[in-house]
Specification:
The chain is mainly alpha-helical. The chain has a domain of 85 residues. The protein is built from 35 helices and no strands. The chain is flat and about 75 Å long.
Length: 501
């Protein structure tokens, strides 16, 4: 039996390359190591014979991957290995009898895998796991999406801190509200007896004697659980810990009076949370829109319920994100009013909306302010002449957006790449454009991210592509190896050379 071909970045790239000749695919199937085989599984052009050979070579642990890709069918023997059987059950395969065998498996690590991977877990097994002696298994059950109410109540009084923490953070909404309130207020009525530190250290730290720190962890998780009744959070509006106050401020069902109080918090990130909250009333948003912190004002501008007049005023004073939820749901009359504003910053809010009527798109594309026009430059409705005009009118400020446009012509891409003022972000967009010419892609190689895009572009000159494939940089080598424009003879030498070695 020949020695295995050890994977390298370029060989892994070649394993996915759609231009790799079939006989070289055969070589990699026959002799490639597990990493190479994993990449071969991703191919969509395998023949029946290649599929059979690949399945025969793959480690049994890969059977679930092969099944998901439609390259193999699960056989009874595959369920003999418990780890493989759990993966297959996760794919919707297997029988209740196989699951029952795994649930009763003596190794707790296997039972934990069942709890983590099998969703939903039948209730009878959930109950059985919840009574298990393995703490990590019970903790996995406490985080399950399907948790009976009586089991949740029992776990809230479990003596281990980790289990209560998992229960308090369970995001499924199946933990009863009264249980979450209990975990928030007391950490669970009965005292904690163990935690991870206790189990790992026969002489635990002093704090483990009372588990006061563990109780705070449980309360913190319950405070941040969206299913905890809002009335139980009221005592935390004035909590000493600012992160606790922010957790309360994130609740959309918080009374307006409490949101107004939190809007005056000394910590910026608490006020930001209030400003982002869709439940924050308009009068509180008006106060936040004049906050001393730019981040708070920007958060207020992103609130979907901010009044339009306040949004316009805010746009004049603060640079807002390009996509504003309130603009996205503006009516057409509102949108036309925004587009007609005398302020370029306000017009830019309308320009960023993706579903502009044709006449508004044309008008805003011709806007004299580059901060407005840049939001239209990547729209496919613009043709090559429109893009040439934008590039001539606004220069490098619009190059990134123009290079994202699928209609950007090759000579404009080259002109932009040659401009000494072209920023790296624009070079990256140029390098990935399908119309970029080999001479243009050469200009993009100095920036590492742009080089990655160029290495994946089939237009890159073959000699440059080979140099990147042979590069010591793993990312360049893998990306270039997957490029279908690599010379076939070079691919042959690379694969057969490794085979000979």
């Amino acid at each position: 039996m020949p020695e295995l071909i050890e994977h390298t970045p370029v060989l892994c790239g070649l394993a996915t390359n759609p231009s790799l000749p079939a006989e070289l695919v055969d070589v990699l199937i026959r002799d490639g190591d597990d990493e190479i085989l994993t990449d071969l599984v991703e191919r969509t052009d395998l023949t029946q014979a290649q599929t059979v050979a690949l399945v025969a070579r793959c480690d049994p642990r890969m059977i679930a991957l092969l099944v998901r890709h439609g390259l193999a069918e699960a056989e009874p023997r595959h369920f003999d290995d418990p780890a493989i059987a759990i993966q297959l059950i996760g794919c919707g395969l297997g029988t209740p009898e196989i699951l029952a065998r795994l649930v009763h498996y003596p190794d707790p690590a296997i039972r934990r895998l069942v709890a983590d991977e099998v969703t939903p877990l039948p209730e009878e097994f959930t109950r059985m796991f919840a009574a298990d002696t393995d703490i990590r298994l019970v903790a996995a059950v406490a985080g399950c999406a399907e948790l009976p109410a009586d089991v949740a109540r029992a776990l809230a009084r479990h003596p281990d801190r980790e289990i209560r923490s998992e229960l308090a953070s369970n995001p499924s909404g199946t933990v009863p509200p009264d249980v979450l309130v209990e975990l928030l207020t007391t950490g669970g009525d009965s005292p904690i007896a163990t935690c991870g530190a206790c189990r790992a250290n026969p002489s635990p730290y002093e704090r483990c004697r009372t588990h006061s720190a563990g109780l705070e962890v449980i309360r913190s998780y319950a405070l941040r659980n969206e299913s905890t009744p809002v009335i139980a959070l009221l005592d935390y509006v004035d909590a000493d810990d600012a992160s606790d106050r922010a957790a309360v401020a994130a609740r959309e069902d918080l009374p307006p009076s409490l949101l107004a109080r939190l809007a005056e918090d000394v910590e910026d990130f608490v006020r930001i949370t209030v400003a982002e909250n869709p439940g924050t009333p308009a009068d509180t948003l008006r106060a936040l829109a004049y906050d001393t912190s730019v981040k708070v004002r920007r958060a207020a501008g992103s609130n979907p319920n901010i009044p339009l007049d306040l949004l316009f005023d805010l746009a004049l004073r603060t640079r807002l994100p390009p996509r504003i939820p309130r603009i996205d749901r503006a009516t057409e009359p509102e949108l036309r009013g925004i587009a007609a504003s005398r302020s370029a910053r306000v017009r830019a809010l309308a320009a960023a909306r993706p579903d502009l009527p044709d006449d508004l798109c044309a008008a805003l594309t011709d806007d004299p302010d580059p901060g407005v026009a840049k939001y239209l430059a990547d729209r496919p409705r613009l043709d090559a002449d429109d893009l040439r005009l934008l590039a001539a009118r606004h220069g490098p400020r619009l190059y990134s957006a123009i290079a994202r446009n699928p209609n950007c012509p090759p000579e404009l891409l080259h002109t932009m790449a040659r401009n000494s003022q072209t920023v790296q972000k624009a070079l990256r967009e140029i390098a990935r454009h399908p119309a970029a010419e080999p001479r243009t892609l050469i200009l993009c190689l100095d920036d590492r991210e742009a080089r990655q895009q160029a290495a994946a572009n089939p237009a890159l000159a073959p000699d440059v592509l080979v140099a990147l494939a042979e590069s010591p940089d793993h990312r360049d080598a893998y990306t270039a190896g997957a490029n279908p424009s690599l010379p076939v003879e070079w691919m042959r030498r690379t694969v057969t050379g490794h085979e000979a070695n």
